[in-house]
Amino acid sequence: MRDAREPRGRARVAMLTCELDPIRCGGLATMVTALCRALDPARFQPVVVLPRSGHAPPWPHLERRLLPYCAADRYQAGGSEVWLLSNPLLDSEGVIYPEPYDHAGIKKTDEYGERVAELLGALDARLLHLHDAYAYKCLYEARRLGLPTVLTIHRLHEDEPPLAFAEMASAQLATVVTTVSDAYRRERDDFFSARQDVQVIPNGIDLDFWSEDALPPEPAGRAARRRRLLRSLELPERPTFAFVGRFDRDQKGLDVLLDALHAGLEGAPLNLIVAGEGDRALAERTAAAAAAAGDRVRLLRRMLPQDEVRALLAAVDFAVIPSRYEPFGLILIEALAMGAIPVASRVGGLRDVLAGAQPGDPGPGRSFEAGDAAGLAAAMLEMARLALAAPEAMDNARRAARTRAEAYSARRMAARYEALYSATLAAGASPAAGRPAAPSGPPAGRARAREEGANDADRSAT
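Below the sequence we write its predicted structure tokens.
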């Protein structure tokens, strides 16, 4: 639905995602929200469509449409138009990604894509941007309507076969495929080699938010924030590391950190703060490790909101990121921006960011081979001793970290997507190489018919 006051020539881009702040599970919400806010409003209008997932959003409500199989509520969220889709499958009690994925999750995914397809005519979008393949079932309808599509692979889901199938189908049907780091494209050449035109656009963060200047003024600076944090957690004054993320057995590597704590860091002069939630057994193992470690380890068993993550990273000395794989790793950029020196595994986007712009540049912090608990323990111990022996070196590393983060601003990310959107719109909705183009005649008539039907539904709802 185009607003009559919308600037002439501004392209409406439908962002198809399961997450947008404050409806979030992790980094996808951070990235999509930052992209929508950073796009040039004179050129592009973000139109976000996502399942309601049981959430009551804080945005002003504009209208409700009753579609044949769901309700679609339209909101205004800053400069973005947001549609939330609701029915028994899409409004599942606050659960964004149901488990087990092989049953409930794929049913919700299929339902979401089918309902998006119903809504396409009413959205009046000129381009669709799928963030991962959750909306894959709308892709053929998009082709019938002559709409070009961008698919961004934030991570592949071979551990969830139904969604892995959706990714394979989406990669063949989308006009353009992108991913978030050169390293991830190389690591997953088994998937990306099916398309010779895959582009890499690194993620970015809002550097106005992720800045110590955005925190309440503190005359004594980082040292005072650190002392206050340690007092609140009843931890002694010594170098402090933080792990922030999802507890899982597949990706984030919390188990590697716990192995390092047990095997190489007993009695080491450091504190560790673990914040997050997820796998119950892993959370219980973390709680047991914290209890056994006494005054060295604290567990914050909850997903921290973004302002709390920012405050934590602005107070600790180091951020531990022991991922087994990481297509990009927004937490690394957030830590760099807040001056928390990273100790991270050499995988995916983490490897790209830590490598720096110049060959041979070691970058701030330390890295280790993914899954290597002994290597992680050695890196943490080395950094803790360096912080005690040469605090000025830590100040230099923090300055280098903030400089590195500046290369990953949301505005830089948005400029790359703007260029991609413009080129894709100029080229039209050409399908992947070797695929027949959709017929050129029916889509316009279908779009008008679908919009008339949506308007009829809207009138019936009011």
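Residues 101-123 form the longest helix (23 residues).
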